[in-house]
Amino acid sequence: MKKSIVDLTSRDVRMRRRGVVTIKKQRKLFEFDIPTTNTLRVRQRSFEEVTSNRDDPVVIEDEEDEVEEGEEEEEEIRCPICNVDITKFEIYQKEAHAESCLEKKQERRVKVVKRPTLPDIKILRFDSGYKVVVDGFNFEKDSGINQYFLSHFHSDHYMGLRKSWDHGTIYGSQITVDLMVSKFNMSRDLVRVLPMDRETWVTETISVILLDANHCPGATVFLFQEWDSTRQTVIKQILHTGDFRSNPELIAKLNSICTSRINQVYLDTTYLIPGFHFPTQNSVLEVTAQFAFDLVQKGIRNYFNDSQQSIFKFVRRKESLFKCLFLVGTYTIGKEKLAIAIAQALKTKIYIPKKSSRFKIISNYTSYFPKDLITHDLQESCVHLVPLSTLRSKESIEAYFKDYSSVYDDAVGFIPTGWTYTNKYAHAPDLPTIESRIQYCRDLLKDDSKNTLELKFITRQYKQHGKYQVFRVPYSEHSSFKDLVLFGTSIPCKEILATVNLHSVERIKDMHLWFNAWRIMENES
């Protein structure tokens, strides 16, 4: 998880009086991945500048904290880069100011560090010789390319973008473009919003259609079609999935649009490993939402026949407003569907603090949520969107929950991730021949036993007498192995190119054996 500016508040002053200095690291807007080496070096210098004259022990917190309400005094806060007073700035303004300072330092270094050449996997080539780039911004400028496409707003895909980026025009969905402009303060002249499910001409003879990738908000699949000079005959078709969770609806749309074989499919192969299966998204959402509803109806301790009572029940002076607070861990963008499903099942809303950096981000795609589902009023909600780091330990949950213990009896966390399921059940089978791979795929497509999430997968994670409960649920926004098999055998195509897990020749060869098996199966159908 990338972090941003060091934010020292009056709470830190009180902590220092007790012998500990707490340095809060605000979350960097829109980020969720591991920082790069360069950003780590810059931030390390920033921390050293702030803490160089302190003799107290330093504790680094990872929560998305804000200045506590009701504070009468606040220690002066200065930017650790340029020393400007930013005490009165809102949190996101502090972040923006510091990021601007950091960017200026980074740009000075970039001038003497040559970027790598664009790899072939990032370039889509058409028969006319025309080229476009998808999700490739951290590379040397190619004078022959001036159109770039961003599939979704996750940092491993937009890496390299900044305000000064000037390689060409960037295309994407409304949500993706809005997030990009908001984060990097890019000129609207540099970007172009493309509509969903509708053909758009990007040159005289090349069109593109954006389809929902069933990934994070704004994520899209790109279908490029090259036409003859009359725009009557398709010459070439290229599909780029970005990151996606395939489903029958997407397959049906593609097959209705494409009347001939797709020439190339650039495929998200994150889970192209036999045994990596997990339930459908709808099943996970339904089972988890019903589980949350039952916990509220019965009470979590009664549900599990646990006699242990929450310590807060013994110190609370009055009845709480809600029996349970549900903390749904999410990326900065992504995984919101689980929180939506739980909130709708409980007939409540999703709470996000109005002045938080998270709401600053979500304000770019509020239309993604059902109308009026987001609230800034605690009394209207028992579902909170929180960073995944909030659920990493009992201590981190308690640090978050302590401010809300008068409103809720208990706290329950949900961590949505496909790896939860697959790590336990993935067993790579021995499939030495193409025939054995074909048979494995055929058997898998007929087996619906893993499509539905069993409640016991969640309930067996309960920790008897635990103060807080955290449940991992197999909700994934990437295609499972079975999803990929169904997609690969249902979409007529001439060539499939893997975009993930390209770290070894052996891995690439193995993926291409699966592609060959799918092609044989598709031709036989």
From TrEMBL:
Gene Ontology biological-process entries: double-strand break repair via nonhomologous end joining; interstrand cross-link repair
Nucleus keyword on record: yes
Assigned keywords, A-Z: DNA damage, DNA repair, Nucleus
InterPro entries registered for this protein in UniProt: DRMBL, RibonucZ/Hydroxyglut_hydro
Any Pfam family the entry gives: DRMBL
Gene Ontology molecular function terms on file: 5'-3' DNA exonuclease activity; damaged DNA binding
This protein's record includes keyword Oxidoreductase: no
Name the record gives this protein: DNA repair metallo-beta-lactamase domain-containing protein
UniProt organism field: Torulaspora delbrueckii
